[in-house]
Amino acid sequence: MDPVSFVRGFRESSPYIHRFRGRTFVISFGGEVLPDGSFSSIASDIALLRSLGIGIILVCGADPQIENRLKEAGKTMGRTDRGPVVPGELIPDILCAVGEVRFAVEAALSRGISDSPMSGAEVRVTGGNLVVARPLGVIDGIDHHFYGKPREVRTATIRQFLEDDMVVLLPPVGVSLSGDLYLLSPEDVAQEVAVALSASKVLFLVDDDGVCDRNGSLARELTNREVTALLSDRKSQHLARESLLERAVEMVEAGVERVHLVNRHRDGALLLELFTRDGCGTLVSSDPFEAIRPAEPADVPGILDLIRPLETRGILVDRTREAVETDIGLYAVTHRDGKIVACAALYPYPDEKAGEIACLAVHPDYREAGRGAHLLAWFERKALSSGLDRIFVLSTQSREWFVERGFVPCRTEDLPPNRRMIYNHGRKSHVLSKKLDGKSTPH
């Protein structure tokens, strides 16, 4: 491993490490992770998350194990649109299969071989009757018998386990108040537990990278409103992910901060999704109180109010009202409760597949929350969607800020010819450039 890259990546992850300490994450996965061997590396990453002070709740499924167990016993389990039909005689086989999964997960999390990622982790795993179940009942004339839904989550007990530095493991089985055992959907369990505990994140480990947009590209970040629009568009071909996306919307509307869909086959996917700005899956969050949008003519006064102080200090080049009005279609703004708190513009040079990020400004009262970086990332995605493969900036006083975000110094000769012709040699601005690779959304 390149030491420089390691140090840079480790430093870039530090804001996330600080932010996540003391938070609660729910991680849900199917029983498929055990026979294909992918859980070995996942377990190492879970142990690392716990060591960073993150409260971990694992929700495991057991569909393949249940299916194999019933097949060996010569039994079958029916299914409706609402879930499986579970007669009482299947419960012993189901419990054996679920127990197999639970012990396999506990074993993977308990490894401590020297010179392995789990060395010294000492992960303590606990569980119990933490989810109270109820029967689903008779739906459309069909009795689902011992298939149920979560009725209650014993949050106080779970919180105590997390405070005691334990990983909480929840199988897809719940006990009713009458003492009966019910098979549950792991997705139902994850959702109910996350909402009850106001979890910061729910991460579903799935078989691919996440959700694709209408153009077939990975959608790295979606708001609940965008998810709803995507699901209503039947041309988007999202039926395989429809249930998880609907759950994601319900969870963020109920107070869960973010829901992630992460590829379980990708080594280190949990760490990449959580500790890099780019992430590697699909993230669903609530509609923001603060949002970025293309600028409108009515935004000109607010933009001028933002940039005038920076022009006075020589940080930005002077722009007239007429110039801003003329170029307003190239601007975007961050608005917070109706107030413009940041702005920037993208000037494209399509012949060179390049674009200039200009007039980047953030209100002084809002400079500590990464708004400039979010606006820059927004423009990176816009540049990519416009067919550009690099962006550049001219800066007199913010060189280091751009370098920290992937820009590299270059020469004025590297500017597009039309931009080079109007370069102001009197300002002696630094020229910095960044190649775009499709990974620009902050997670």
From TrEMBL:
Its EC number is 2.3.1.1. Keywords: Acyltransferase, Amino-acid biosynthesis, Arginine biosynthesis, Transferase. One of its GO terms (cellular component) is cytoplasm. GO terms for molecular function: L-glutamate N-acetyltransferase activity. Residues 290-426 form the N-acetyltransferase domain. Coiled coil: none annotated. PROSITE patterns: GNAT. The keyword Transferase applies. Transmembrane segments: none annotated. It holds the Pfam family Acetyltransf_1. It comes from the Bacteria. Pathway: Amino-acid biosynthesis; L-arginine biosynthesis; N(2)-acetyl-L-ornithine from L-glutamate: step 1/4. The keyword Nucleotide-binding does not apply. It catalyses: L-glutamate + acetyl-CoA = N-acetyl-L-glutamate + CoA + H(+). InterPro entries: AceGlu_kinase-like_sf, Acyl_CoA_acyltransferase, Asp/Glu/Uridylate_kinase, GNAT_dom, NAGS_kin, NH2A_AcTrfase. GO terms for biological process: L-arginine biosynthetic process. PANTHER family: AMINO-ACID ACETYLTRANSFERASE, AMINO-ACID ACETYLTRANSFERASE NAGS1, CHLOROPLASTIC-RELATED. Belongs to the acetyltransferase family. ArgA subfamily. This is amino-acid N-acetyltransferase. The lineage of its organism: Bacteria, Pseudomonadati, Nitrospirota, Nitrospiria, Nitrospirales.
